[in-house]
Structures are given as structure tokens and as C-alpha cells.
Amino acid sequence: MATPLRYALIFLLWAMVAVIYAPLIPAALTLISPALSLTHWQTLFADPQLPQALLATLVSTTIAAVGALLIALLVIVALWPGPKWQRMCARLPWLLAIPHVAFATSALLLFADGGLLYDYFPYFTPPMDRFGIGLGLTLAVKESAFLLWILAAVLSEKRLLQQVIVLDSLGYSRWQCLNWLLLPSVAPALAMAMLAIVAWSLSVVDVAIILGPGNPPTLAVISWQWLTQGDADQQTKGALASLLLMLLLAAYVLLGYLLWRSWLRTIPRVDGVRKPATPLLPGITLASFLPLTGVLCVVLLAILADQSTINSEALINSLTMGLTATFIALILILAWLEWGSSRRHFWLWLPILLPALPLVAGQYTLALWLNLDGSWTAVVWGHLLWVMPWILFILQPAWQRIDLRLILIAQTLGWSRAKIFFYVKCPLMLRPALIAFAVGFSVSIAQYMPTLWLGAGRFPTLTTEAVALSSGGSNGILAGPGFMATAITAYYFCPDRVSRKMGRLCQTRTPLMLCVKNVSLRLPESRLLKNVNFTVSKGDIVTLMGPSGCGKSTLFSWMIGALAGQFSCTGELWLNEQRIDMLPTAQRQIGILFQDALLFDQFSVGQNLLLALPAALKGVARRDAVNDALERAGLGGMFHQDPATLSGRSASARCSASRSSRSAKSVATG
Q: Name one GO cellular component term (predicted).
């Protein structure tokens, strides 16, 4: 591509992105100008609705954030890693595909006064929910699926899977694995996801209107009502209430940071204490419950929906606006990843990390200046501010995983940057782009405030219809828009498409043992090994050699009790005249030494070794045992050394410190 043309396209790209993100500036002005007057603040705090609205907002947001995090962690502890975790990840789109408004509508039809639950059980009466508890619980269930979906990509990393095997073999419980290994590893992704959940829960309007509380409503709903009134004083109160939401978000961020720092001071704990086995039933139950809620939501809406009352104009508007906004955003983000700034683009994430109300107010202000309010173009432009960061959220990790060697080969062939983009990168990004398109379409369908405000009420959509009908009418009329929104979103968010990219967890685990007798290993369609026998005496070394895929690593997996579910194995494993192939992994006392050292980066060399020691060894004896193991590995005086600089010998010392008489090495042979 000629240099002048390339610069012109880059300028055009920056201009289009700037137009979409321009509302950030008037949004800031909308918040700052009224905040400079003390009288305006006094008027806001004198409003009798504010204390109860603020309390309901805090309660619902806290329940949503803490509940989503707790559900996600319980599921991870119970299922990860393993086939059940893979199946649960494949079923997450059953819940992810349902728009928030449709999910809230199904909850209203089921649990509200006059809902199906109380029709069948008339002796129960729904409690008066003045604090938004029902709203918080509904958001917690919905957002836990999003949180699991984000963490699934991080947890599919092979190194994490193998490090968990190390902790399992040392006898530590699943909660200890979560505390020492998983949380530090997923912290960046977890922090971003939790920030998005808190910001959205604070400022959600459509779901809060459907589920309540009603009088007074949450702070976001009150702010929305004030901003849409013609009275300038009321609009000022709405702007200050939006700023108050921003301050609440900052308070939540500070609280989360302080809790994180406090938690970091509790690790590492290398006293050797092995906690009791973690109860898995709560996590297993929740893992089954999450996809089931999505299925029940669809079934309930489908049964109750009166399709003759569905507004065809709302359906057409939802489809055309959603497809247009998503297509534009997908093209822009792909172009941005190639030609945009590779650094300092944090501002692109702001729409999903900040409360939505002030941003919508900024959009409306800009639309008034440009005389675009009440137009179809303005509504699509408003949707782009939220669709673009979500598509970037999906595509950026996949873009960063593109093998640079492919780019280098194309460059050696004399290909231009544009040709490499279209013929190398775009085909590699096809599947992530399909997932991003599904997510972006779902985000566009769910937009309530931009559609209603920028469209001046002239463009009904399925979301605006669902919110409008939630205040009354028959169940059939109420269920109709929610069902159609779910149906068209599920078409693009088809589970069998998305599940292919949820991450295939590596199940390869690799240790070794002392006496193997008549071991045969099979897959459902083929035999890998037949009647394998060998004996290893103390100090001996046995090497298993063979081509890739012949069953070497799988045999090691069977030896430590970590055989993947698709394999079957017969035979016996003996240690010191005791058969151990029926024992759990931790009781086999096998030291594991992977080709990758798999040390825990957050611990020093000495602390990695302390983890391997039994809790019965106390005080100075623990330190002496570690120093002895370090001396044998040629690492004397390296207790406080960073393990990254001494990984191989540190892993050998850890095997030695665990006092295992056996160890196994996994080395790739091709």
C-alpha cells in the first residue's frame, strides 16, 4: 500500500473512532459544571428519595458483584480442570445468549406478585423488596456466567494445569490451589471483569425498572428520570446523581484494591498444613444450575409469549440496528488492531468500565448540537460506543496470539502490510470474529438508554418494548419481546459455534512409578499400549521412548491417578509391595518433575520447597530440610532467590524436599 494512501486510511480510522468516542468529552462537562456549585449538591442531598435509592443501589450492586465472584470461584474449585469443566464451559452460552432484559423478564414472570410461582403456591406471598435484593441476585446469576467465560480463557493455560497437578501431588486442597495459584494468575483478567460488573450493576436502568425496587427506585433509575425531565433543576440533580454513581464506582475500586492487598499479605503460607478436602457439592450444583437457568428462561418465555402481540417494527429495528452497529464496530476494531495505536488505548475500554448514564447524557448533548437527535443514524452511533469495546475485548487476545513467524514469512515473500492483513491475519481471526460479532450483536440488542434517548422514542426495539410492558399487562404480552430478543440473539450466539472457542483444556499430566504390571491403555476407537511391564529400583532411571501420541504421557497420567476421561486403562501399579493405582493422587507420594519446571512464580526458591514439606515438620527443622535439599541440588544459599533464574534445579530440589523416593520427568520427544 502506497504511503500516502496508508496515512490517509489511518487518519480516517482515527477520525471514525474519535467520532464514536466523542461523547466522553461532553459527558465529562455534563458532570463537572453542576458539581462546582454547593447549592446544587445541597438540593440533591435534600431530596427525600436519595437515601433509600442510595441504599438500594449499594445493596444490589454488592450482592451482584460478590455473588457473581463467589459463584464463579465455587464452580472453578469444584470442576477445574477436567471434562466436567469443559462441558460446563460449552454450556455457558445457554445463559450468555440471553439478553439481560429477557432474563429479568423471566424472573419477573416467575417470582413477582402474581407470577407463576405464587399462582401454584398461593400460600406464599412475595416479600416487599425495598433494598434491591432480588435485583442483585438476578444480576449475580447472569454476571457469574460472564465472569466464568472470561476466566475460562486464562485457565486453559497449560502451565496452570500442570502446576495444579504439582499441588495436588503434594496433598494440598482445591481451595489452597485457588488461593496460592489461581487467583494470582487470573488477577488481571479478574480485576477487569469485576470492574465491568460493578460499573454495569451501578448504572443499570432497564433491568432495575423491570425488577425494582419501585418507589423509590435505584439511584441509576432516579438519575435517568431526572435527566429526562424538562426542568433544568431536575436535570442538574440527574447530572449530580450520575457523578455520585462515578464516586461510588471509585469507592468500590478502592475497597477492592484494599481487600486485594490484604489478601496478598496472607500468602505465601508455607507451613506445610494441608487443609481438609474441599466440599465440591456447592460448586457442582451451581455449575449445573447456571446453564439450566438459561434453558428455563427460554422455555418460560416461549410458553407464555403471545406472538400475535409482538411489535414487528420493534423486531425489525432491533435486527437492523444491531447488525449495522456490530458490522461497523467489527470492521473498525480489526482495522484498529492493525493500524491503530498499540499502546495507551485504555480509553477504548472506558464505556464498559464506567457507569453508562453520564456517557448517554454526553451522547445526547452532542446529538443536540449536531441536530441528529431522533434519527436512526444517531441510535446506531449511540450503540457503537458500547459495542466497540466489547468486540475489542474479544478480539485483542486472539490478535496477540497470532504467530509472528507467519508474518515474518510473508514479509520475506515481499508481501505488503495490507496483503498480510487480508490474506494472513483475517483468515486466522475468522472464528474469534464470529464470536465477537455474536457478543457485539447481543450488546446492541440490550441497549435501552441510547435507543430511547437518541431516538427520541421514535424507534421502538424489543428491549424498549420489554421495559415498557413490565409495568403492567398480561404475561403473554410481557413475555413476547423478551422471547424474541432471546431468539434472535441466540441465533448469532449459537452455543455450538461459541463452544469451539471456549478453550480446550489440556489434560496431559505426566509422572512415573516403581512397578508397572500388565498395563494396557485404550481410547474408545484404538489401543495405545498393550501389556506394558517394567520395574524401577531406587536410583535407577527408566526412559520411555516412542513417537508423539503413542501413549507415553498418558501412561504417566495413569500412574499419578490423573487419567483423562476419554482413556481407559487396565493393569496394576505397585510401590514397595503395596498396590497404589486405586489411591488418590496425593496419597501416592509421587514427586513430579515436568519438562517445564512449573515453579510458583509468586514464591521464592525456598518457599517453593517449603510447600513440599509435611506439616509435621516444624520450625527450624523445616528450614534445615529445605537448606539440605538446596545443597543437594547445588543451590546452597539460594533460599530467597527468584525461581525464574534457577527453575530446573529448583524443581529438582522440590522433588527432593518432598522426600519422595520416586520421581518422573516428562520430556518431549517429537
A: plasma membrane
CB neighbour list of residue 301: distance below 8 Å, 6 or more residues apart: 102, 105, 106, 109, 479, 482, 483, 486
**Cell numbers standing for residue 3:** 504511503
CATH number at residue 569: 3.40.50.300
The string of pLDDT tens digits covering residues 539-563 is 777 888 877 677 877 887 788 777 7
Grid coordinates in use for 136? 442483585
Residues 454 and 601 in one domain: no
**Can you tell me the distance from the alpha carbon of 19 to that of 28, in angstroms, rounded to the nearest whole number?**
16
Whole-model pTM over 0.90:
no
Distances (CA, A) of 464 to 139, 377, 414, 457, 558: 19, 18, 53, 9, 56
- Examine residue 306 and state whether it is found in any structural domain, yes or no: no
Domain presence at residue 234: yes
Residue 198 sits in the same domain as residue 274: yes
Domain for residue 539, yes or no?
Answer: yes
Ordered DSSP codes for 291-332: HHHHHHHHHHHHHH--GGG--HHHHHHHHHHHHHHHHHHHHH
Banded model confidence at residue 658, pLDDT cuts 50, 70, 90? low
Give the other-Cβ count within 10 Å of 356's Cβ. 26
Beta bridge partners of 569: 521
Cα atoms found within 13 Å of the Cα of residue 495, Cβ hemisphere only: 16
Residue 516 is classified by DSSP as E
Q: Residue 633 is placed in which grid cell?
A: 541440588
Residue 657 lies in a domain: yes
Question: Residue 106 to residues 118, 208, 300, 401, 483: CA-CA distances in angstroms?
Answer: 14, 14, 7, 39, 9
| 3 state DSSP class of 139 | helix
Strand order in the sheet with 578-579: 526-535, 515-523, 568-575, 578-579
Neighbours of 2 (CB within 10 A): 8
Q: Cα separation of 93 and 298, whole Å?
A: 13
- Tell me the chain's radius of gyration from C-alpha atoms: 29
Cell numbers representing residue 429 in the block? 481471526
Q: Which domain holds residue 572?
A: 515-665
25 with 161, same domain: the answer is: yes
CA 645, 647, 651, 656 dihedral sign is negative
Q: Is 578 helix (H, G, I), strand (E, B) or coil?
A: strand
**Number of domains composing the chain:** 2
